[in-house]
Amino acid sequence: MLYLAAVLTAAAAVLLPLAAAGPEFDWPRIGLLALLHLCLESLAQGARTPCARIWRWVRGRSADEAHADPRGSGFFPVLFAGVLMLPPAAAALVALPGALLGPAAPPRGPRRLWNGAQLALAAAAAAEVFRLLGGARLLLGTRFPGAALGALAAILTFCLVNGVLVAGMIRLTRGAVGPGALGALRRAAPAALLHGAGGLMIAVLWQGPYGAFAAVLGLLPLTITAWLSAQGHRERAAHRATVQALVQAVEIKDAYTRGHSERVGRASVLIARQLGLAEERVRTLHFAGTLHDVGKLAVATELLRRNGPLTDAERRAVEVHPVFGHELVRQLDFLGEGRDGILHHHERMDGRGYPHGLAGERIPEFARIISVADAFDSMTSTRSYRRGRPVPEAVAELERCAGSQFDPVMVGALVRAVAEHGWQPEPPPPGGWDGEVPDIPLGVPEPARLPQQSGTGLPTGGAA
């Protein structure tokens, strides 16, 4: 609370010059920029502001549909234009309506105040840097690259101040910023530069002979881009919600699946990134890995909760779960090739897997990845009937089975990923797992089974 109070106080101090409304404050320009930022921010994030309601009315959409996912990408070109054209206090004021009336998670009041304060401070600092570099003078003459360099410095200042303030709040509320913070900043940099270029374009057009009209017209392509981006965010959020709902349904039947599904999805992503798969395929693979055991919904609960060996008939009943899983997700078009990954994740390179006995390259790539991720997490996880293996031992076992059960390329990718990023299995819940099934065994040595029977190698207690 002290940190929030300090940021709010600093933002209020930045806005104090507005109390003495001198000629340097162009109120019509400030008001128009603030209104544009509010409307376009609401469009980008799906907020329930008056502008968003008008937009929904024009497009004939329901309020609930438009507000399904308020987490959009944000829309900063107008805010950056204010930074380049206005004094620091006025630039800070432009940011307030969009932040105070925009979407926020509960408790909404404090979060909106925080959003407004940190954006106001970032905008004021960026505007001050632009002023000190003589950017406003260069902008009037549209001299390049002089104005562009000043604008770049202002954008970097905005991002730096915003990042420091947010990192401070995260550290106070969560105890640590997290190792992915720098990666998140790197991923955000291209968007910040794009929005900054948009802000510079708006500022230059505004200074031209057609004034605000030309600037607003120039916003049209940026607005369309922001809206399309928001649509993508909402669609991906709907996909995540669908996957999560299915996983939760499986967890009700099979206690061991709790955590296992997410870890298999995470390990699949580690392998995919080592292989250099395209980001869209990585996202699809993550969904498929998380849903690889969704077919357990169609398996008798008594078998899933049996804490002991299964008969041959019972084992065959459990081995049908990939087919059931494929049927359950058949209509989920966003899974794409992930559906085949779910169907074939228990196939083996030597053709002794199930359900179809595929071998080698005939097994879909996603299935070969998920198979390794599934086996690795199974071996390193503790179950009620045995302790999890140490990571080095599980890695050695995967390497021993490479070529017969697992694709050596996928095993090598997981080994490299674990060496680079580490792996920490989630601990079992207090009291252990509630009677999870001793799943189909993995790996070598090979069991003494008839050739027509599907077999897997590794000792009992393998992958789910």
TrEMBL record:
It comes from the Bacteria. InterPro entries: Cyclic_di-GMP/3'3'-cGAMP_PDE, HD/PDEase_dom, HD_GYP_dom. The keyword Transmembrane applies. It holds the Pfam family HD_5. The chain crosses the membrane at residues 78-101, 113-134, 146-167, 188-206, 212-230. PROSITE patterns: HD_GYP (PS51832). Residues 1-19 form the signal peptide. Residues 421-464 are annotated as: Disordered. Residues 235-430 form the HD-GYP domain. CDD domains: HDc (cd00077). Keywords: Membrane, Signal, Transmembrane, Transmembrane helix. The keyword Transmembrane helix applies. This is HD-GYP domain-containing protein.
